[in-house]
Specification:
single chain, mainly alpha, 3 helices, 0% strand, elongated, transmembrane, transmembrane helix
Length: 70
């Protein structure tokens, strides 16, 4: 099922989906560092929020429809 979902994405939407996976990884690492008391974890969590917003905007926008499939 997942394979058919990924095959239906064009290249730009696939890149934005990878950006969302990167944002989730950054959020998990930021939460881990925040729990351990690292003061720089706020920067990582902020970066994660920015990546999530960018990835969602990229998937939902019409910009992602304009790339030719290869």
């Amino acid at each position: 099922m997942l394979r058919s979902i990924f095959k239906s994405l064009n290249r730009r939407r696939y890149l934005c989906l990878r950006l969302l996976f990167l944002a989730n990884t950054a959020a998990i690492l930021g939460a881990y560092f925040k729990i351990n008391g690292n003061p720089n974890a706020d920067i990582l969590l902020t970066f994660s929020i920015i990546l999530m917003g960018t990835g969602l905007a990229g998937i939902l926008s019409k910009w992602a429809e304009g790339w030719p499939d290869k």
